[in-house]
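PT: before anyone asks, these are the final sequences, not the draft ones from last week. 370 residues across everything. Please model them as a single complex and drop the result in this thread when it's through.
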Amino acid sequence: MSLDHAILGFLQYKPLSGYDLKAVFDISVKHFWAADQSQIYRTLSRLAECGWAEIERVEQDDRPDRKVYHITKSGSDELIRWLMTPLPKKSERIPELIQIFFAGNLSDEEILTMFERLESHCRHSLEELQQIQKMKGGNVESAPRRDAFFWMLTLEYGIRMTEASLAWLEEVITRIKNGRHRVGE
Amino acid sequence: MSLDHAILGFLQYKPLSGYDLKAVFDISVKHFWAADQSQIYRTLSRLAECGWAEIERVEQDDRPDRKVYHITKSGSDELIRWLMTPLPKKSERIPELIQIFFAGNLSDEEILTMFERLESHCRHSLEELQQIQKMKGGNVESAPRRDAFFWMLTLEYGIRMTEASLAWLEEVITRIKNGRHRVGE
DNA sequence: ATATATTATAGGATAAGTCTTATATATGAT
DNA sequence: ATCATATATAAGACTTATCCTATAATATAT
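LR: through. Structure below.
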């Protein structure tokens, strides 16, 4: 799955330790792929077992030793292969839609509260993403334009989707306020 | 998590067996919550253990006996409680965005192929959703308007998001064809 | 003084989900 | 005749991810 390949992707740029990777995930792909620290370490061991990465032990006096992972030729090949492979389409799980689907069990007031909660959450996410986009304008300059272009695309995608969600939620709230969900009762 | 509550939601409408539930999931919430048959049965046992559902054994001569699950008062309370509870916001995982993020490793030609693949997949999903929407127009009439309203909302959401994805992908493909990802190289 | 944060790795327990297979009967299609 | 499909339930093995905890030294803040 994708965590393996996300890690290979980062190792392709340069060798990194598990600790480094956690930090790198948190400042770059967290919005669409949050990685658990524990899971990163476990996955790194597996990558090394597979021969997709090699471990370099870096001794340190004051800190615990670092295990820096280098991507191998076969790891690099695997990354390229995966990047061109269509992903098995499995519908993502959206628990919010379960709440909406069964919202008929709630009172009109509770429903409105629910949607307004979803809306404010969505607005907050949008602000976060826009904030990142602003800062990234400078942040990304160290990378080749080609890489930076695709990094920005993933942010742009997040923003577009969140904007669309927000627009939809606002529309739905208006409809509910106009009692459109009660028509015909 | 949500499978528990999705099942409680359906049991709130009427008592169902595991087999029934699998069918119900597949024709209603599959687009945003695909449920594995095996997982449904496991979850049902757990719901019964929790006291949120009760089992009625229905003997049949020609077929294996059915275990029909009835929601209890405490199950119903739990459903309502959950519907009003804000969900812990955990960013969803979008493996496609990992592929896009690291697309810089591919050639221009491969990149275009990748995005066109994503676009056609997206177009296909949209058609599927629109097809369901058309059919549901009649399908849903048996339910109270209030419930049907929220069922349709979840479909509408899927369509809006897929439309937004598609529009974005088309735009990105144009930009790539114009060589915008190579600017400054 | 004490608590928290940073750097660094990793195991244990648990949860959640997927895939496969087993069992059993009936019906319809090729 | 045989094969697939529908009805009905459920265990086994495995994967992936999450949460918590442990270890260990240093540094900074209260």
